[in-house]
Write a structure and sequence with these properties.
Blueprint (H helix, E strand, L loop, with lengths): L1 H31 L6 H18 L4 H29 L4 H23 L13 E4 L2 E4 H23 L1 H11 L1 H6 L4 H27 L6 H16 L4 H17 L14 H15 L11
Antiparallel strand pairs: 1-2
Helix pairs in contact: 1-5, 1-6, 1-8, 1-9, 1-10, 2-3, 2-4, 2-8, 2-9, 3-8, 5-6, 5-8, 6-8, 9-10, 9-11, 10-11
Length: 295
């Protein structure tokens, strides 16, 4: 039972990070029909922003997380004005925008390598501090990641359910034309979508850096495939679906190593497990957990 609870908690930590990053991907696709491959670099830039605050300036990692959210949200807004909006005005197709996002991702990663070098980074956290909570052992970084992630998920849920801008974002994602003629300010919602997407990616980067302990400029790219798996599993374009898909995949990845399941798999197979879960679920429900069936 102790191992079960430990894996469940670990799965919730992993899943919450996938969920936060996945919400941003899902919102951008739902509203703009853009498959943002550069989301992985947003994640990495968030982790490195926290490095600057926590290591270079020697401030608390929580302040580093706040700085990462603000910095990557601002970066997403800048890229909307100088990159995405001009591309949309030229009526670039979905495939063209995808290739453009891939190119943006490579440029951003190259810039990071040239500025920060490929050397691994760590946060100024006590890695030897371990808390025992009901038989579940959590390091200081894991405990911070759990608290921050679930507070963020709760705030995202409240924003979508209770605020006018959140409802407008969901309306625009469901039916852009109907939302527009109903009085929704499309440009304002698009801008806020990038703010939310960038902010969540920045936060996900910090949390991933915390639970990994050591990370480099490839971190976001490695995390991107499970994030896309979470988005597709939950239902492309559904923010709530991305939350559900991320948590489900995170738990499945961790439970694949459970010794009670035939000895468990090696952790190197976790991404394979993520996509196996995705394939099986899509065979049962092609539109994803909360996606709408096509007619």
């Amino acid at each position: 039972m102790t191992q079960f609870l430990q894996l469940l908690v670990n799965g919730l930590v992993t899943g919450s990070i996938l969920a936060l990053a996945g919400v941003g991907v899902s919102l951008v696709y739902g509203i703009l029909k853009v498959v943002n491959f550069a989301q992985g670099e947003y994640i990495t830039y968030g982790a490195f922003t926290a490095v600057a605050v926590n290591i270079v300036w020697k401030l608390n990692i929580v302040l580093g997380a706040i700085a990462a959210v603000a910095a990557i949200a601002a970066l997403a807004v800048v890229l909307e004005y100088v990159f995405w909006r001009p591309m949309r005005r030229r009526r670039a197709g979905v495939f063209t925008l995808f290739v453009a996002s891939l190119g943006l991702s490579l440029i951003m990663r190259g810039l990071l390598y040239s500025v920060a070098s490929p050397n691994p980074r760590t946060y100024r956290i006590n890695v030897f501090q371990v808390y025992d909570i009901g038989g579940v052992r959590l390091s200081e970084s894991q405990l911070l990641a759990i608290v921050i992630a679930f507070v963020a998920i709760a705030l995202v849920g409240v924003m979508f359910a209770r605020t006018q801008i959140g409802r407008s974002m969901r309306a625009l994602s469901d039916n852009r034309e109907l939302a527009s003629i109903s009085g929704v300010d499309v440009d304002r919602v698009v801008l806020f979508t990038w703010i939310v997407s960038g902010g969540l990616a920045g936060l996900a980067g910090v949390l991933q850096g915390l639970i990994q302990g050591s990370f480099d400029a490839n971190m976001g790219f490695v995390l991107l495939l499970p994030v896309f798996a979470a988005v597709i599993l939950g239902g492309v374009g559904s923010a709530y679906g991305a939350l559900a898909g991320g948590l489900l995949i995170g738990i499945a990845m961790e439970f694949s190593t459970w010794s009670a399941l035939g000895g468990g798999l090696s952790p190197i197979w976790e991404q394979v497990v993520a996509f196996t879960v995705l394939i099986v679920m899509l065979l049962i429900r092609p539109q994803g957990i909360l996606g709408e069936a096509r007619t």
